User: Fold these one by one.
Assistant:
Number 1:
Amino acid sequence: MTVALETRGLRKNFGAMVVTNGVDFKLAAGARHALIGPNGAGKSTFINLIAGRLTPSAGSVLLAGENVTALSQEARVKRGLGRTFQINTLFANLTVLENVTMAVSERLGRGGDKLRFAGSRRDIVEEAYELLKRLHLAEDALRPVREIAYGRQRLVEMAIALGLRPRVLLLDEPAAGVPSAETAVILDVMEALPADMAVLIIEHDMDLVFRFAKTITVLVRGAVLTEGTPAEIVADPRVREIYLGEGRHG
Amino acid sequence: MFVYRSAATISPVDYMVCSHRLRWPELLPWVAIIAAYFAFPSYLALGAQVMIMVLFALSLDLVLGYAGIVTLGHAAFFGVGAYTAGILAVHGWEEAITALPVAAAVAGAVGLVTGYIILRTRGLTLLMLTLAVASMLGEAANKANWLTGGADGLQGITLRPLLGVFHFDLFGRTAFVYCALVLFAGWVFVRRLVHAPFGRSLTGIRENAARMHAIGAPVRQRQIIVYTIAAALAGVAGALEAQTTQFVGLNVLSFDLSGAVLIMLIFGGVGRLYGAFVGAPLYMVAQDALSRLDPEYWFFWVGLLLVVTVMFARGGILGVADLLRRKVMR
């Protein structure tokens, strides 16, 4: 198995509170992997530690075998790590096409060009527009992001991440806040992701998780409780207790 | 090539590819400047001052309007440029045009060093640090009497005729044309910069720095670069001020000037490229008219105008114009 992403003894404390507690985790190349757990399990913190938004208290993060623990978010992106955010983190006053063009431009190393007009690189704009077509966003291409529906903004989140052509994609609750009728579109997009791209998804919508993921890791109180196939996870009494014990599904 | 077509008639890709092309309203400031030269021959000196302030406000728009860096000390760079050009002239460098890049380089270097230090911070801390930088430079200029003339100001600035032909005349004709040409060059540069990927990424940083980090953009590096560029441009404006008035006083580094240029930009519209062209003339004309009507409390009326703008026209005059245009088009 080629490992695209790995964490070794990853730990994060906020004062005396341990949010991530020595997590050892491996994501295979091309994996469809979900990370689930009750609220407060430390899932988003784990994603932020991998992405470099938070600095770990201990442990390490490896991307394709390279230790990137000390590297900035930008450096990790350049090494093939893309992500979406749990809460939309977009350029609200820019158009949908501009949002995605920005990501493509940065990936190609043209984001810092000063004397060449942005529009002069037609290939960059066309690539961004093709991505919008794939994500059923083409009709909103020239609308400011703030004017489109929340569910479609979630798709823009994904489009921006895909504009980076990541080898590892972290999806932080892509269906959060999306009406159930629209989650099918999100699932379609996720299922059409390139086969060689490793995807780690955090999601509370268990239907979506079980339809998408081939492997599931359960995180509880910052530590890995168990890992296995969807069938193994469903059959695990500890997982059933955590979810049913909470009186909610997800 | 002038393009002014609606988004509905062309594909999104074509629309974006054409988005940087010149539109006819962008020529209006230049028509106004040419018209002013012939229509108001006795106000050319004031016209030169207005254009210097437009250039200064344009430089502020880069940092504040595009990159979202709030500053109360932009006069620091204007002052450094003014003192550089003035000191050069007093010490024998009487050629005005070549002094401009020197002033830009010195102001840009100050912008680079201070930006490198203060852009590690954000919010109120950053605001206070920008203010502190300008205050420190103002105090340094005050103390360095031997170099800057201190509180008496830098006097004895003499310049050779531009290109060996055009004297800086009493009516301000040469100064007006000189400032107009430098402003034009500055506008071409800034316009290209904001329509370049770099400029777009500044907007991205202003809109959402977290996302810019997440797409791999070196956010802090870009902030430092634009801060340096804006400082250099403000330095050119300061140099023009020194050259056209042939005097540099401590006010060029003052908080009053930093505040005034901020008000100009807010009046015109922040982050719109042309806010400087609207706000600076409006502020200076209002200042002139109000100080005649009410010599003692004229700034009260400027303050009132600012309150009204911030409360009811947050995008400034251009913001209101844009809103009206959208309503009419609906």
Number 2:
Amino acid sequence: MPSSIFSRLGGLLGNQEWVGFDNFDYVFSIPNIWQVVWNTLRIAVLKIVMGIIVPITFALLLNEIRLMLFKRVTQTIIYFPYFLSWVILSGILIDILSPSSGIANQFLGVFGIKPIYFLGENSWFPYVMVASDVWKTFGFNTIVYLAAITSIDPSLYEAAAADGAGRIRQTWHVTLPGMHMIIVLLMVLSLGTVLDAGFDQIFNMYSPQVLQSGDIIDTMVYRMGLLQAQYGPSTAVGLLKSLVSFILITISYWIAYRLFKYRLF
Amino acid sequence: MLTRQTRAQKVFNAFNYAFMIVVCLLCLVPFIHILALSLSDNAAVSGGLVKLWPVRFTLEPYRYVLDRDAFWRAFGITLQRTLLGTLLNVMLVILLAYPLSKTKEKLRTRSLYVWMFFFTMLFNGGLIPSYILIKELGIMDTLWALVLPGAVTVFNVILMLNFFRQVPEEMEDAANIDGAGHWRTLWQIYVPVSMPAIATITLFCLVGHWNAWFDGLIFMRNADKYPLQSYLQTIVVEFNFQTMSATEAERLAKLNDRSVKSAQMLVAAVPILLVYPFLQRYFVSGIRLGSVKG
């Protein structure tokens, strides 16, 4: 049935042949497909978790700094990497992390640690991706959380201090509750990105040696589709990813709306 | 509120300042190292002598880069796409946000349009369909392939329309009474009062276009047409899967002139440094634009 409709539409769509679910069957018969899905989830979820913990911790610590000039200079420095492309940052990281000539391994060598091939070993690669992603983005996100902290009513701190709360208890009972909405909101909205492990970053830093731990859905789609010209299967993978992401994003916006009446427009 | 610090607070503060300095160094050291590499003599670089200060200072890598035709050609293409692309982005954001910021009573099909645009944020066809689309449109190898696919930045449209909605209605009513139509109201009332938002969006579009590399890589079949970041990608980080084995890749990394690579990366980052003060000024306001409302 669908095939006859399809062939009648054939003239409209160009020279095409009805193959049913062949492309999908093929995709699921690729031996390491589940490894790729797992890699994607692992890197993406680690990035989401670290991308929340690190900036919040840093924003809380930065908030304790009383020297305004120091605070401003720190902010200026930490969000600079955010505005550079992954091409440039990858170029820098590849140089720094090189086992033979990189400054990182020279530094570790001072402590007697043997050179580590950060970008060439499967045991390191995913964590280097997570760490370098945090390095690029934490400054920007710190400013987001800092903006939330500064919008907390100062009289709450005064009341807490009058009740005898020290800095730590003020942070625990005033600052964190004041930020809870934006924290939960950003957590909910990040649900839609669990299949995005960061194509720009990984594509520019991976190599054949680390395919086992570093190959993600997007890089696989690229290699299959544009390098090996397997348009059909590659599109099938892309479509599945889009569908799952679509469902997840929709759910995340729905939760955000139910919890906070959050709406984009 | 100033209170006397306890001993524990003093210790905490000392550690906190020290920690901040360490983190700042972590952010800065890679760039300083690259800068030092780009300013050092070839022998010093390959001997691994360069740390954070140039050894046997030379400007030769920069001279080499600035003499390269390929570098300047790519630079020119990036300049074109950034200017044309940002102009298109900002014009479309303003022109779309204005009608969509109106109430349902004034524009009956508003929700339909908003949802249509919003849907593109939720779902996309993926890499291959986009590639085939650009190919079939016949705009491969042209500037349009870099500028048109991302012309409507839906997220920015939503930011802008939320901003437009905060403009007091009395201002528009007053303009209407004085005989201003929609065009005049938009350009003489809405746009001037929204300058901070427009500046933020413009800066983000500028940075986005300057940093874009993947579209150039796939939509330009001829490497002569690559924008700067795609050109950089091919010389700085590309691992060719078909032709290069692991050992070859490692050898190439040693053979390649690290100074030249460093110099090219830094030159490509200069424009970002130039707009950085403006980014800083507007981007906190940009965050507030994007942040949660009530």
